[in-house]
Amino acid sequence: MDLDAITKYSALHAKPSGLILQYGTAGFRTKAEHLDHVMFRMGLLAVLRSKQTKSTIGVMVTASHNPEEDNGVKLIDPLGEMLAPSWEEHATCLANIEEQDMQRVLIDIGEKEAVNFQQDAFVVIGRDTRPSSEKLSQSVIDGVTVLGGQFHDYGMLTTPQLHYMVYCRNTSDQYGKATIEGYYQKHSKAFVELTKQASCSGDENRTLKIDCANGIGALKLREMEHYFSQSLSVHLFNDGTKGKLNHLCGADFVKSHQKPPEGMEMKSNERCCSFDGDADRIVYYYQDADGHFHLIDGDKIATLISSFLKELLLEVGESLSIGVVQTAYANGNSTRYLEEVMKVPVYCTKTGVKHLHHKAQEFDIGVYFEANGHGTVLFSKFAEMKIRQLAKELEDNKRKAAKMLENIFDLFNQATGDAISDMLVIEAILALKGLTVQQWDALYTDIPNRQLKVKVADRQVISTTDAERQAVTPPGLQEAINGLVKKYRLSRAFVRPSGTEDVVRVYAEADSQESANSLAYEVSLAVFQLAGGIGERPQPRF
Ligand code: 16G
Ligand code: MG
């Protein structure tokens, strides 16, 4: 380790004094102008992690659905997963230390994690379309280089594409080829093969309108569309040529405002979807003949997919275990439908992809989706092997079903939730089942719900248990929530400190929209009073 070079280069990426940042649920996120030193330091950390794991590590520069002026960075672990928790702590520590402590902290991390400094290191880098991203990814490269790491800069990629590259590289290309063409070919081939099985294919030229949030999804879909255009034609809106990234559009906007994005021409009953700014989230929606907007969120996506998988498993006669993983934000009726109608086991974890991903790995086939549209389906090695074997051995309809399972396995990004691959699976299932978007939506009706934010002096005074469904502290808060929930029918409410914003989030469900609104308001007031609210008191208006 050339300590002098580190000191010299580190000074060129100086930390603004007094700035403290935390490696949160999705890495570091803040205003782009405050991130140069964090990028350089994450380049250093990625090299250490690569040396320790003797694997390729990914560094993604993006702030996802956050405003264009923001940016962020996260590290991707060897199998495409989110960074291990102990390394999140190193990341926070390294991002916040003063210049003069840099050498000591690097040596410290190296010792704690038994890093062999002689080991080679390889880091792959990707970035979104933000104007600040190019320069910031250069700072990551500076960090990688000064610690002697090798790197490959993929330039602009969706977040899930970088996860895919990391996964491919660390499995000697067995999973797929670690190039952008490799990604397009693998997914398109599986999609085209799958949709060929649809009896109605060819009758109708299937089209889908996609709001790309003015982000990277648009660029990548443009490059990819000719690979699958024989089965699906996509109409891209908010493709970044005019509008601002994530501004009044994208999956986060549509989900949280429950309305269509700007810049999209929607006709009644047309199937539409929105990606977020880095294309790892997707929600569907349509407008009915009366002009009413219908959102089809991650819960309904999980329901469609798990129902279809269950049918195929029944057809091939294989008893592979299947489980659905949700968070506390999953609509109560989605959980009820999955458990009572579909008879699939449902599990609840804390918010954040890594928690769901981890739980989903416990099943042969683990379907996980957050209501906000992050999700994928994971297949165990055993399930993959079994399915490939069945696709060869079985005959007639059973073989057909096994082949579909094989295609679905190839389509889902096994490294993380991926809007592009999720979209292709959904489109294939709708075609195969001959379902319209309205029929899909009608599987169950969402219980009316409301989300609110409350500002408090220190959101960490709220701690939770039972996958965030119960508040442990401050004292009295859970009792207050219990009392309020009892006043309404079909009701449920919980609060949790946000992992990405300095607020406490409140979620409430009840039998009518008015009831959900007032329950959310009353719970907000309880949070404000018992957890040190600051600023304006919550108001009963929406
Ligand atoms: C991050 C998480 C997402 C989660 C959200 C919750 C990843 C890649 N992203 O965006 O899964 O739903 O945070 O935000 O893990 P909150 O803590 O502010 O509610
Ligand atoms: Mg995202």
From TrEMBL:
Keywords: Acetylation, Carbohydrate metabolism, Coiled coil, Isomerase, Magnesium, Metal-binding, Phosphoprotein. The keyword Metal-binding applies. Gene3D superfamilies: Alpha-D-Glucose-1,6-Bisphosphate, subunit A, domain 3, Alpha-D-phosphohexomutase, C-terminal domain. Residues 51-90, 118-166 form the Alpha-D-phosphohexomutase alpha/beta/alpha domain. Its EC number is 5.4.2.3. GO terms for biological process: carbohydrate metabolic process; hemopoiesis; UDP-N-acetylglucosamine biosynthetic process. The active site is at 64 (phosphoserine intermediate). Pathway: Nucleotide-sugar biosynthesis; UDP-N-acetyl-alpha-D-glucosamine biosynthesis; N-acetyl-alpha-D-glucosamine 1-phosphate from alpha-D-glucosamine 6-phosphate (route I): step 2/2. Residues 453-523 form the Alpha-D-phosphohexomutase C-terminal domain. Binds 1 Mg(2+) ion per subunit. SUPFAM superfamilies: Phosphoglucomutase, C-terminal domain, Phosphoglucomutase, first 3 domains. It comes from the Eukaryota. InterPro entries: A-D-PHexomutase_a/b/a-I, A-D-PHexomutase_a/b/a-I/II/III, A-D-PHexomutase_C, A-D-PHexomutase_C_sf, A-D-PHexomutase_CS, AMG1_II, AMG1_III, PAGM. Substrate binds at residues 370-372, 496-500, 505. It is an enzyme of class 5 (isomerase). Residues 380-411 form a coiled coil. It holds the Pfam family AMG1_II. It catalyses: N-acetyl-alpha-D-glucosamine 1-phosphate = N-acetyl-D-glucosamine 6-phosphate. Its cofactor is Mg(2+). Residues 178-283, 297-434 form the Phosphoacetylglucosamine mutase AMG1 domain. GO terms for molecular function: magnesium ion binding; phosphoacetylglucosamine mutase activity. Belongs to the phosphohexose mutase family. PANTHER family: PHOSPHOACETYLGLUCOSAMINE MUTASE. Catalyzes the conversion of GlcNAc-6-P into GlcNAc-1-P during the synthesis of uridine diphosphate/UDP-GlcNAc, a sugar nucleotide critical to multiple glycosylation pathways including protein N- and O-glycosylation. This is Phosphoacetylglucosamine mutase. It comes from Orycteropus afer afer. The gene is PGM3.
